[in-house]
TrEMBL record, chains A, B:
It is found in: Endoplasmic reticulum; Secreted. Keywords: Endoplasmic reticulum, Secreted, Signal. It comes from Channa striata. Coiled coil: none annotated. This is Uncharacterized protein. SUPFAM superfamilies: Thioredoxin-like (SSF52833). Residues 1-20 form the signal peptide. Belongs to the AGR family. GO terms for cellular component: endoplasmic reticulum; extracellular region. The keyword Secreted applies. InterPro entries: AGR/TXD (IPR051099), Thioredoxin-like_sf (IPR036249). It comes from the Eukaryota.
Length: 166, 166
Protein backbone atom coordinates (compact mmCIF):
# COMPACT_ATOMS: atom_id res chain seq x y z
CA UNK A 1 0.00 0.00 0.00
CA UNK A 2 2.73 2.47 0.99
CA UNK A 3 4.59 1.41 -2.14
CA UNK A 4 1.53 2.18 -4.29
CA UNK A 5 1.09 5.65 -2.75
CA UNK A 6 4.79 6.27 -3.25
CA UNK A 7 4.56 5.24 -6.92
CA UNK A 8 1.54 7.47 -7.43
CA UNK A 9 3.42 10.35 -5.84
CA UNK A 10 6.43 9.74 -8.08
CA UNK A 11 4.21 9.78 -11.17
CA UNK A 12 2.56 12.98 -9.93
CA UNK A 13 5.95 14.65 -9.42
CA UNK A 14 7.09 13.49 -12.85
CA UNK A 15 3.91 14.77 -14.51
CA UNK A 16 4.13 18.11 -12.68
CA UNK A 17 7.78 18.68 -13.51
CA UNK A 18 7.23 17.76 -17.16
CA UNK A 19 3.98 19.56 -17.88
CA UNK A 20 3.78 22.35 -15.27
CA UNK A 21 4.84 25.42 -17.25
CA UNK A 22 7.55 27.62 -15.79
CA UNK A 23 6.25 30.75 -14.09
CA UNK A 24 8.73 33.38 -12.80
CA UNK A 25 8.75 34.17 -9.07
CA UNK A 26 7.63 37.70 -9.86
CA UNK A 27 4.50 36.35 -11.59
CA UNK A 28 3.43 35.45 -15.08
CA UNK A 29 4.62 37.78 -17.84
CA UNK A 30 2.91 38.81 -21.07
CA UNK A 31 5.11 37.53 -23.92
CA UNK A 32 7.05 40.35 -25.62
CA UNK A 33 6.02 41.00 -29.23
CA UNK A 34 8.35 42.04 -32.04
CA UNK A 35 5.94 44.87 -32.89
CA UNK A 36 6.14 46.35 -29.37
CA UNK A 37 2.78 47.98 -30.12
CA UNK A 38 3.84 49.76 -33.34
CA UNK A 39 1.60 47.55 -35.50
CA UNK A 40 0.67 44.03 -34.43
CA UNK A 41 -0.41 43.11 -37.97
CA UNK A 42 2.92 44.02 -39.57
CA UNK A 43 5.70 41.50 -40.15
CA UNK A 44 8.70 42.98 -38.32
CA UNK A 45 12.33 42.17 -39.04
CA UNK A 46 14.18 41.31 -35.82
CA UNK A 47 17.61 42.75 -36.64
CA UNK A 48 19.11 45.36 -38.99
CA UNK A 49 20.94 42.64 -40.95
CA UNK A 50 17.64 40.80 -41.46
CA UNK A 51 15.87 44.02 -42.50
CA UNK A 52 18.59 44.84 -45.06
CA UNK A 53 18.38 41.32 -46.46
CA UNK A 54 14.60 41.46 -46.94
CA UNK A 55 14.83 45.00 -48.35
CA UNK A 56 17.36 43.97 -51.00
CA UNK A 57 15.74 40.68 -51.92
CA UNK A 58 12.18 42.07 -52.14
CA UNK A 59 13.22 45.46 -53.57
CA UNK A 60 11.28 47.35 -50.89
CA UNK A 61 12.59 50.26 -48.80
CA UNK A 62 13.35 49.58 -45.14
CA UNK A 63 11.93 51.78 -42.36
CA UNK A 64 13.99 51.70 -39.16
CA UNK A 65 12.18 53.08 -36.13
CA UNK A 66 14.20 53.79 -32.98
CA UNK A 67 12.21 54.20 -29.77
CA UNK A 68 12.17 53.48 -26.04
CA UNK A 69 9.42 51.78 -24.06
CA UNK A 70 9.61 54.32 -21.20
CA UNK A 71 9.91 57.46 -23.38
CA UNK A 72 6.67 59.54 -23.36
CA UNK A 73 7.46 61.04 -26.81
CA UNK A 74 7.84 57.51 -28.24
CA UNK A 75 4.60 56.42 -26.55
CA UNK A 76 2.61 59.39 -27.88
CA UNK A 77 3.91 58.90 -31.41
CA UNK A 78 3.34 55.13 -31.22
CA UNK A 79 -0.35 55.62 -30.46
CA UNK A 80 -0.92 57.75 -33.58
CA UNK A 81 1.37 55.58 -35.72
CA UNK A 82 -0.23 52.25 -34.78
CA UNK A 83 -3.80 53.54 -35.15
CA UNK A 84 -3.28 55.12 -38.58
CA UNK A 85 -4.60 52.69 -41.18
CA UNK A 86 -2.91 54.38 -44.13
CA UNK A 87 0.49 54.17 -42.43
CA UNK A 88 -0.09 50.54 -41.40
CA UNK A 89 -1.41 49.40 -44.79
CA UNK A 90 1.37 51.13 -46.76
CA UNK A 91 4.06 49.75 -44.46
CA UNK A 92 2.59 46.25 -44.67
CA UNK A 93 2.34 46.21 -48.44
CA UNK A 94 5.30 48.30 -49.59
CA UNK A 95 7.96 48.40 -46.86
CA UNK A 96 10.21 46.22 -44.74
CA UNK A 97 9.85 47.35 -41.12
CA UNK A 98 12.17 47.18 -38.12
CA UNK A 99 11.77 48.76 -34.69
CA UNK A 100 14.71 48.90 -32.31
CA UNK A 101 15.08 49.89 -28.66
CA UNK A 102 18.83 49.35 -28.76
CA UNK A 103 21.17 51.19 -31.16
CA UNK A 104 23.12 49.27 -33.82
CA UNK A 105 26.86 49.69 -34.38
CA UNK A 106 26.15 51.25 -37.80
CA UNK A 107 26.73 55.01 -37.51
CA UNK A 108 24.84 55.69 -40.75
CA UNK A 109 21.64 55.08 -38.79
CA UNK A 110 22.31 58.06 -36.50
CA UNK A 111 23.27 60.88 -38.90
CA UNK A 112 22.63 63.56 -36.25
CA UNK A 113 22.56 61.60 -32.99
CA UNK A 114 20.85 58.73 -31.18
CA UNK A 115 17.64 60.37 -29.91
CA UNK A 116 14.18 58.71 -29.93
CA UNK A 117 11.71 58.49 -31.54
CA UNK A 118 13.68 58.57 -34.80
CA UNK A 119 12.84 57.19 -38.24
CA UNK A 120 15.46 56.39 -40.87
CA UNK A 121 14.66 55.07 -44.35
CA UNK A 122 17.06 52.76 -46.17
CA UNK A 123 16.88 52.15 -49.93
CA UNK A 124 17.03 48.53 -51.26
CA UNK A 125 20.48 49.49 -52.64
CA UNK A 126 21.44 49.65 -48.90
CA UNK A 127 21.80 53.45 -49.03
CA UNK A 128 20.60 55.30 -45.92
CA UNK A 129 18.20 58.02 -47.13
CA UNK A 130 19.62 60.84 -44.98
CA UNK A 131 17.78 63.23 -47.33
CA UNK A 132 14.35 62.17 -46.02
CA UNK A 133 13.89 64.31 -42.91
CA UNK A 134 11.20 65.55 -40.53
CA UNK A 135 10.57 69.16 -39.51
CA UNK A 136 13.00 69.68 -36.63
CA UNK A 137 16.39 71.22 -37.46
CA UNK A 138 18.10 69.91 -34.31
CA UNK A 139 16.65 66.37 -34.58
CA UNK A 140 16.20 65.88 -38.29
CA UNK A 141 14.73 62.35 -38.11
CA UNK A 142 12.35 62.91 -35.18
CA UNK A 143 8.57 62.82 -35.56
CA UNK A 144 5.83 63.97 -33.20
CA UNK A 145 2.15 62.90 -33.21
CA UNK A 146 1.23 65.96 -35.33
CA UNK A 147 3.75 64.93 -38.00
CA UNK A 148 1.93 61.82 -39.20
CA UNK A 149 1.04 63.40 -42.59
CA UNK A 150 4.66 64.43 -43.10
CA UNK A 151 5.67 60.84 -42.35
CA UNK A 152 3.27 59.62 -45.06
CA UNK A 153 4.80 62.11 -47.51
CA UNK A 154 8.27 60.88 -46.53
CA UNK A 155 7.19 57.27 -47.01
CA UNK A 156 6.16 58.27 -50.52
CA UNK A 157 9.67 59.69 -51.10
CA UNK A 158 11.25 56.48 -49.83
CA UNK A 159 9.09 54.49 -52.26
CA UNK A 160 10.69 56.32 -55.20
CA UNK A 161 13.66 54.00 -55.18
CA UNK A 162 17.17 55.15 -56.03
CA UNK A 163 18.48 53.76 -59.28
CA UNK A 164 19.26 50.12 -58.60
CA UNK A 165 22.03 48.29 -60.44
CA UNK A 166 19.94 45.83 -62.43
CA UNK B 1 -32.56 66.14 -42.48
CA UNK B 2 -30.25 65.24 -45.36
CA UNK B 3 -27.61 67.41 -43.70
CA UNK B 4 -28.03 65.47 -40.43
CA UNK B 5 -27.68 62.11 -42.18
CA UNK B 6 -24.63 63.42 -44.01
CA UNK B 7 -23.08 64.61 -40.74
CA UNK B 8 -23.77 61.25 -39.12
CA UNK B 9 -22.16 59.51 -42.09
CA UNK B 10 -19.11 61.75 -41.85
CA UNK B 11 -18.75 60.97 -38.15
CA UNK B 12 -19.13 57.27 -38.93
CA UNK B 13 -16.41 57.42 -41.59
CA UNK B 14 -14.14 59.36 -39.23
CA UNK B 15 -14.72 56.89 -36.40
CA UNK B 16 -14.13 53.91 -38.68
CA UNK B 17 -10.93 55.31 -40.17
CA UNK B 18 -9.62 56.28 -36.75
CA UNK B 19 -10.59 53.24 -34.70
CA UNK B 20 -11.04 50.46 -37.26
CA UNK B 21 -7.80 48.52 -36.85
CA UNK B 22 -5.81 47.63 -39.94
CA UNK B 23 -6.29 44.03 -41.07
CA UNK B 24 -4.15 42.65 -43.93
CA UNK B 25 -5.90 41.42 -47.08
CA UNK B 26 -4.66 37.91 -46.34
CA UNK B 27 -6.44 37.96 -42.96
CA UNK B 28 -5.59 38.78 -39.38
CA UNK B 29 -2.16 37.66 -38.19
CA UNK B 30 -1.05 36.46 -34.75
CA UNK B 31 1.52 39.00 -33.51
CA UNK B 32 5.10 37.62 -33.64
CA UNK B 33 6.71 37.12 -30.23
CA UNK B 34 10.37 37.68 -29.43
CA UNK B 35 10.44 34.23 -27.78
CA UNK B 36 9.24 32.48 -30.98
CA UNK B 37 8.05 29.67 -28.70
CA UNK B 38 11.41 29.05 -26.96
CA UNK B 39 10.10 30.32 -23.60
CA UNK B 40 7.29 32.87 -23.42
CA UNK B 41 8.14 33.73 -19.81
CA UNK B 42 11.76 34.65 -20.54
CA UNK B 43 12.88 38.20 -21.29
CA UNK B 44 14.59 37.96 -24.68
CA UNK B 45 17.14 40.39 -26.07
CA UNK B 46 16.23 41.48 -29.60
CA UNK B 47 19.71 41.85 -31.10
CA UNK B 48 23.23 40.57 -30.43
CA UNK B 49 24.40 44.08 -29.48
CA UNK B 50 21.60 44.33 -26.94
CA UNK B 51 22.39 40.86 -25.56
CA UNK B 52 26.08 41.72 -25.15
CA UNK B 53 25.18 44.95 -23.38
CA UNK B 54 22.90 43.22 -20.84
CA UNK B 55 25.42 40.41 -20.36
CA UNK B 56 28.22 42.83 -19.50
CA UNK B 57 26.16 45.17 -17.36
CA UNK B 58 24.44 42.39 -15.35
CA UNK B 59 27.46 40.07 -15.31
CA UNK B 60 25.44 37.13 -16.65
CA UNK B 61 26.46 34.83 -19.49
CA UNK B 62 24.60 35.21 -22.80
CA UNK B 63 23.04 32.23 -24.56
CA UNK B 64 22.60 32.72 -28.31
CA UNK B 65 20.24 30.24 -29.94
CA UNK B 66 20.17 30.03 -33.74
CA UNK B 67 17.16 28.29 -35.25
CA UNK B 68 14.68 28.35 -38.14
CA UNK B 69 10.90 28.33 -37.94
CA UNK B 70 10.55 25.73 -40.72
CA UNK B 71 13.39 23.42 -39.60
CA UNK B 72 12.06 20.15 -38.08
CA UNK B 73 15.23 19.70 -35.95
CA UNK B 74 14.75 23.20 -34.50
CA UNK B 75 11.06 22.47 -33.86
CA UNK B 76 11.75 19.17 -32.08
CA UNK B 77 14.43 20.70 -29.90
CA UNK B 78 12.26 23.76 -29.17
CA UNK B 79 9.49 21.57 -27.75
CA UNK B 80 11.80 19.91 -25.22
CA UNK B 81 13.64 23.17 -24.48
CA UNK B 82 10.53 25.26 -23.84
CA UNK B 83 8.84 22.59 -21.69
CA UNK B 84 11.84 21.94 -19.44
CA UNK B 85 11.33 23.90 -16.22
CA UNK B 86 14.93 23.61 -15.05
CA UNK B 87 16.20 25.04 -18.34
CA UNK B 88 13.61 27.83 -18.31
CA UNK B 89 14.12 28.76 -14.65
CA UNK B 90 17.92 28.77 -14.89
CA UNK B 91 17.86 30.84 -18.07
CA UNK B 92 15.41 33.31 -16.55
CA UNK B 93 17.36 33.81 -13.36
CA UNK B 94 20.98 33.45 -14.43
CA UNK B 95 21.33 34.13 -18.16
CA UNK B 96 20.72 36.73 -20.83
CA UNK B 97 18.92 35.02 -23.73
CA UNK B 98 18.74 35.75 -27.45
CA UNK B 99 17.22 33.65 -30.23
CA UNK B 100 17.97 34.48 -33.85
CA UNK B 101 16.60 33.22 -37.16
CA UNK B 102 19.00 35.39 -39.13
CA UNK B 103 22.80 35.16 -38.81
CA UNK B 104 24.82 38.12 -37.49
CA UNK B 105 27.92 39.49 -39.22
CA UNK B 106 30.07 38.31 -36.27
CA UNK B 107 31.96 35.19 -37.39
CA UNK B 108 32.79 34.26 -33.79
CA UNK B 109 29.18 33.08 -33.48
CA UNK B 110 29.68 30.41 -36.15
CA UNK B 111 32.97 28.70 -35.15
CA UNK B 112 32.20 25.65 -37.33
CA UNK B 113 29.43 26.85 -39.65
CA UNK B 114 25.95 28.35 -39.72
CA UNK B 115 23.73 25.28 -39.15
CA UNK B 116 20.61 25.22 -36.92
CA UNK B 117 19.72 24.56 -34.18
CA UNK B 118 22.97 25.85 -32.69
CA UNK B 119 23.72 27.21 -29.21
CA UNK B 120 26.67 29.48 -28.45
CA UNK B 121 27.49 30.82 -25.00
CA UNK B 122 29.18 34.20 -24.54
CA UNK B 123 30.90 35.24 -21.31
CA UNK B 124 30.17 38.71 -19.80
CA UNK B 125 33.77 39.58 -20.78
CA UNK B 126 32.39 39.31 -24.37
CA UNK B 127 34.39 36.14 -25.03
CA UNK B 128 32.61 33.50 -27.14
CA UNK B 129 32.84 30.21 -25.19
CA UNK B 130 33.86 28.03 -28.16
CA UNK B 131 34.99 25.45 -25.56
CA UNK B 132 31.39 24.67 -24.52
CA UNK B 133 30.26 22.11 -27.09
CA UNK B 134 27.60 19.45 -27.65
CA UNK B 135 28.19 15.83 -28.64
CA UNK B 136 28.48 16.01 -32.44
CA UNK B 137 31.99 16.28 -33.91
CA UNK B 138 30.79 17.73 -37.24
CA UNK B 139 28.38 20.25 -35.68
CA UNK B 140 29.95 21.04 -32.35
CA UNK B 141 27.26 23.47 -31.15
CA UNK B 142 24.20 21.49 -32.25
CA UNK B 143 21.75 19.93 -29.78
CA UNK B 144 19.03 17.35 -30.28
CA UNK B 145 16.01 16.66 -28.02
CA UNK B 146 17.93 13.87 -26.25
CA UNK B 147 20.75 16.30 -25.36
CA UNK B 148 18.78 18.43 -22.91
CA UNK B 149 20.79 17.16 -19.88
CA UNK B 150 24.04 17.93 -21.69
CA UNK B 151 22.71 21.43 -22.34
CA UNK B 152 22.05 21.85 -18.60
CA UNK B 153 25.61 20.72 -17.86
CA UNK B 154 26.92 23.19 -20.45
CA UNK B 155 24.83 25.98 -18.92
CA UNK B 156 26.56 25.16 -15.64
CA UNK B 157 29.94 25.55 -17.37
CA UNK B 158 28.89 28.90 -18.83
CA UNK B 159 27.89 30.07 -15.34
CA UNK B 160 31.48 29.60 -14.14
CA UNK B 161 32.50 32.96 -15.50
CA UNK B 162 35.90 33.63 -17.01
CA UNK B 163 38.03 35.95 -14.92
CA UNK B 164 36.60 39.43 -15.40
CA UNK B 165 38.76 42.52 -15.25
CA UNK B 166 37.37 44.09 -12.09
Amino acid sequence: MIKAVFSALLVLVAVTSTFGKYIPKTGKRIPQTLSRGWGDQLIWAQTYEEGLYWSRSRNKPLMVLFHLEDCPHSQAFKKVFSENNEIQKTLDEKFIVLNLVYETTDKHLSPDGQYVPRIIFVDPTMTVRADITGRYANRMYAYEPGDIKLLLTNMGKALKLLKSEL
